[in-house]
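Hey team,

Filing this mostly as a record. A colleague (T.K.) asked me to run one chain through the structure pipeline before their review meeting, and I want the input and output archived in the tracker in case anyone asks later how it was produced. No errors, nothing strange. Just documentation.

Input sequence:
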Amino acid sequence: MIKVKEHTAAWLLKKKLKEVENKLLQTQKELQRESEYNNHLESIIQEGSSVKKSNIITIKSATKIEFIKVDDIVCCDADEGYTHIQLINGKTITAARTLSTFDKALEGHSFFRISKSHIINTNHIVTFHKDKNQILLLGNILLDIARRRRVEFLKNLK
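Output structure:
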């Protein structure tokens, strides 16, 4: 009789253990789904935040940090490890950053890289000279467009 009770108790324990293991597996699956859903939401938020960029950019020079409105930038010119930023008011700011840094920072705004050395604000184009493949920007800034970039530039203007 005692052996039957022990056998029944062992069987009940095994049954309970199996139920707990099944619940654990279900919980793990639910947590995995929840984690995947959270990752998906985070990617959506990041995509949205990259579209909604700030209208102000910080430019660090040797002695100060300047806060410039993105719309005030006419163009950026590469000079080895430095970038010269031309503003609407005629002022030039030199930053100890590469042009590619500004290319990424100005992504999502109305800027286009016309060559290896120049990024322009398409809102400040005055004239496009088709025959010379040049652009005249505000402030009488005349820049050449790289031949490889011409078609993409014209598509971007539309």
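Quick notes for T.K.: The beta strands are 56-60, 65-69, 73-79, 82-87, 92-95, 111-113, 118-121, 125-129, 134-137, 141-144. Residues 42 and 145 are 38 Å apart (CA to CA).
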